[in-house]
Design brief:
Layout: H1 2-6, H2 12-26, E1 32-37, H3 44-62, E2 73-74, E3 81-85, E4 98-101, H4 103-110, E5 115-116, E6 120-122, E7 132-138, E8 154-162, H5 166-170, E9 179-186, E10 201-203, H6 206-215, E11 222-225, H7 232-240, E12 246-251, H8 257-266, E13 272-276, E14 301-307, H9 325-329, H10 331-345, E15 346-356, H11 365-374, E16 378-380, H12 399-404, E17 406-408, H13 423-429, E18 434-441
Parallel strand pairs: 4-7, 11-12, 11-14, 12-13, 14-15
Antiparallel strand pairs: 1-3, 1-10, 2-3, 4-6, 5-9, 7-8, 8-9, 15-18, 16-18, 17-18
Organism: Dissostichus mawsoni
Pfam families: Methyltr_RsmB-F
Protein name: SAM-dependent MTase RsmB/NOP-type domain-containing protein
């Protein structure tokens, strides 16, 4: 039943096969690391050179090899993207001394991160700084914090060197911070960007960068990002506008607000204004209101980005399938409430971009079909760049309409984008699962 929700337009056998490919694909990281370069602060080539120098220094500190090479390629179509190949899965021997981390931490390790202390759930009873350990990710969230061992469902993510004693992790009144295990033999080898050019090199999935370009913000415009945390797309929009104009970022979860502000400050963007507010209530009935923040009068924005809350069935790496059918079905009503607000807040002649990081038909093409029927003022528009595939059958959209949509479906080419393929070719296909639709309000 679940895979029919995801792939409603194909036969049962093909749907099941494709869903299993999807789950396999999602359990692995993409075959490259995507970096969004802050080209509003420096030219791309200058950032590329600085990044190469920093990563070489980093690798020389952790590698015994004299010659360290770092491959960094510009994306051929997207002017602010740099691509770094990921090597893996590599043959790494598991050790008897084991550290267990949470799934979020395990996923970060697969994408090049070290293990930070808050992510550690279990460690050997007598672990000391300097011990070499194998790191495992708890797949079901069942490991008790402070345990000395764990035999539940887990997956190996590589070997590292403990940077802190066990007592410093679990036996302190003050929560410990910083790196707990420095990864020296990760299952997937990719650079750690911890502290590396934080204002010039911003880690972001390729489809998330594409969204900003598809929105097409121009200097001097007023733009709304309706569900803004953690602020990567918000800051990209402001950077594309050369920080000229206003980018209003709304986020209803209070403890996520600071992250957006920190990212904007780090990237030296002054045009971003952040408010803790529920975007479903962002339309004001007072067309003459004088206060600056939300709610806003109708037709207040030149462009609106609705990067909607979704089931997230496209995020990679995701090492366990924990989605229930009920959860997959729960997002559609919220997305439609947000759509109603977005259309009202958009000026006539303005652009609305709807995006999700999921692959379900119900949250993507079905929402587009519903929006076109519900709001006659909306028409689908071509997207630039369009490096993903077209929309999926099953929602009643015409072939012309499907061609205007952009869907990133890594499971379709999972077994076809081998290491021999050119990196940009792999980069455009071996992504997280993602969906983009662009509308014009007539």
């Amino acid at each position: 039943m679940m895979f029919s929700m995801v792939l409603a337009a194909v036969g049962h056998q093909e749907a099941e096969s494709r869903f299993q490919r999807l789950l396999t694909c999602l359990s692995h990281p993409p075959s490259y690391t995507c970096v969004r370069a802050s080209t509003h602060l420096a030219p791309l080539e200058e950032i590329r050179q600085k990044l190469g120098e920093e990563l070489k220094k980093q690798q020389m500190c952790t590698s015994s090899e004299k010659e360290v090479s770092v491959q960094i390629l510009p994306h051929p179509l997207i002017p602010d993207v740099l691509l770094l190949p990921v090597d893996g899965p590599r043959p790494v021997e598991q050790l008897s001394s084991e550290v267990v981390v949470g799934t979020q931490c395990g996923s970060a390790v697969l994408r090049g991160a070290n293990v930070f202390v808050p992510g550690i759930l279990a460690s050997p009873k007598f672990m000391k700084a300097g011990d070499v350990v194998s790191v495992f990710s708890d797949l079901e969230g069942r490991c008790t914090r402070g345990a000395t061992s764990f035999q539940g469902m887990r997956v190996f993510v590589g070997n590292g060197v403990a940077q802190i004693d066990r007592s410093g992790i679990f036996c302190t009144d003050v929560a410990a911070k910083g790196v707990g295990v420095r990864m020296v033999e990760p299952l997937y080898q990719s650079p750690s960007f911890d502290g590396v050019l934080p204002n010039l090199a911003f880690l972001q999935n390729l489809p998330s960068v594409v969204v900003g370009h598809v929105l097409g913000p121009l200097p001097g415009e007023r733009i709304l990002d309706m569900c803004a945390a953690p602020g990567g797309k918000t800051c990209h929009i402001a950077a594309l506008m050369r920080d000229q104009g206003e980018v209003v970022a709304l986020e209803k979860i209070k403890n996520k607000i600071d992250r957006i502000r920190q990212n904007a400050k780090m990237l030296q963007l002054n045009s971003v204004k952040v408010y803790c507010f529920n975007s479903t209530k962002a339309v004001s009935s007072d067309s003459a209101q004088e206060h600056e923040g939300p709610p806003f009068p109708a037709e207040s924005f030149d462009r609106v980005l609705l990067d909607a809350p979704c089931s997230g069935l496209g995020q990679r790496p995701s090492m366990s399938c924990t989605w229930s059918l009920k959860e997959l079905c729960s997002y559609q009503p919220l997305q439609r409430k947000l759509f109603h607000a977005a259309v009202q807040l958009l000026k006539k002649g303005g652009v609305l971009v709807y995006s999700t990081c999921t692959v379900t038909l119900a949250e993507n093409e079905e929402q587009v079909a519903w929006a076109l029927e519900t709001f006659p003022c909306l028409t689908l528009q071509p997207q630039e760049p369009h490096i993903g595939s077209e929309g999926m059958l099953g929602a009643g959209l015409s072939p012309e309409q499907l061609r205007l949509l952009q869907r990133f479906s890594p499971e379709l080419t999972w077994d076809q984008t081998g290491a021999a393929a050119p990196l940009p070719y792999r980069a455009d296909r071996d992504t997280i699962g993602f969906f983009i639709a662009k509308f014009l309000k007539k």
